[in-house]
Amino acid sequence: MNASVIARIAKIVPLAVVTAVGIAACGPTHGEASVAASAPAATPAATSSATPGAGAVPTTPAPAAPTTEAAPTTAAPAAPAPAAAAARTEAKPVAKAPAKPAVKPVAKPAAPKAAPAESGGSGIGITFDGLNEGGQIELNDLVSFSVTWKNNDATGTRGVAPVVATQLYAGAPCARVFGSADGTLERKDASGWKTLDHLSQGTGMDYVINRNDGAFTLAAGESRTIEYRMRLSTANRPGRITIEADAPVPNSTDYQDMAKAVVNAALVDHRAPEVTGVTASSPKVGTTPAEFGFVVDAPHGTTDLRPVVGVSSAAWLTPDDVVLEVMAGGAWKPVELREDCDGLIAVAPTGLESNRRGDSVEYSFRITMKKAPRFDVEVEVGAQTNGHQAGRWNAFGPQGRR
After folding, report:
1. Does the pTM exceed 0.70?
2. Are the beta carbons of 266 and 135 closer than 8 angstroms?
3. Strands, DSSP E only, in 248-330?
4. Candidate ranges 28-32, 226-230, 274-278, 311-315; pick with highest mean pLDDT
5. Most buried by CB count within 10 Å: which residue of 69, 190, 258, 292?
6. Rounded alpha-carbon distances, angstroms, from residue 65 to 37, 120, 264, 312, 351
């Protein structure tokens, strides 16, 4: 793919343009999931755990999921008789229960599960179970969860073509062009586990248009629960990802009023190298050489360990726009840049120091723009080893100092 083709793609795709500069092949991460909460319907519903194509719809009623942090209500008293009213003392107002303090999400894999919460007040409500809002998903782990679709209407039926997919992910391979997370998603049907065509949404709405796979009909108050399992590969970098469940109408192109629910989770990889000590000599990247550095630890092995540098800007960058150098052997050496779907890839010069297992190594780089950039240039630093990638940090941003 040449630079002109990629430039045209970048103008079409509604994503931030990312130019990645790395010193080795890309790598991955891991974690645990979370749940998006919304108010569950208070109408009792018949719950079905049958999977798509499993046959008859059960009719056993079950109470709706409990609403969390609901405000207490007091019924108005009946008007007293005139004689009793005179002797009646003034009633004191009922004190409302104090609001529960907000609970910060726990990032530990063993964090207790939050109660399932449902999105949507009327029409179709959607509930995640088995994923925790703000939790972790370990890269390369098989993660099981379920999604429930419920018809909250008082009367009538609704058709649902169930859809589950990750939203576009900045840590995905070729994220500059597509942003589709790498991995697999399976759904449990009546005949067993079925591998779905896509784990991630695309750049358009094809993932919900004219859908019919696994479609079902819900009577008023009825619900259907489907089991899923997902594996996000180590081709992804650690970061924050969103999983979305949707309720498009079967065989329809109208998605404007489609019900949806989301869960936000952190992708982590506990076997990836760690990046610390990020520093920069100036607040911005420009035509004057700006130095930056960082420390890499690889406690789980150092095979093919390399530092990684990524450069991004709102304007398209080519190898001719950027000069990147690395300190090796006591002197600044130019880093060759080449272009692929992830942007500009740096080819490591000979003599670049690597570390042994358990050692920490500090790397120093400097970057110069050949002409004044029209937009701010962001420089992200990371590392990779053994097919695992560290998360990236902004060397010239306040959040990058660690």
Report:
1. no
2. yes
3. 259-268, 274-280, 290-297, 306-313, 322-328
4. 226-230
5. 292
6. 12, 13, 21, 45, 61
Percent of the chain with pLDDT over 70: 64
Report pLDDT for 316: 82
Considering only CA atoms, which of 318, 321, 348 is closest in space to residue 333?
Answer: 348
Summarised one tens digit per residue, pLDDT across range 275-285 is: 999 999 999 99
Tokens of residue 26, six digits: 């890309």
CA distance 99 to 96: 8
- The neighbouring-strand residues paired with 219 are 157
Residues 310 and 392: beta-carbon distance below 8 Å:
yes
Q: Give the CA-trace dihedral at 268, 274, 279, 280, to 10 degrees.
A: -70
**Euclidean distance between CA atoms 102 and 113, whole angstroms:** 16
Residue 314 DSSP SS3? coil
Residue 377 has, within 13 A of its CA and on its CB side, a CA count of: 27
**Residues counted in the chain:** 402
Pair of tokens at residue 296: 């890499």
Residue 32 structure tokens:
């645990």
CA distance 348 to 183: 29
Burial of 74 from C-beta contacts in 10 A (0-12 / 13-18 / 19+): exposed
From 237, 273, 274, 243, select the one nearest 260 (Cα to Cα).
243
pLDDT of residue 235: 93
3-state helix, strand, coil in the chain (%, to 5): 5, 40, 55
Q: What is the pLDDT of residues 189-236, one digit of tens each?
A: 999 999 999 899 987 888 888 888 999 999 999 999 999 999 999 999
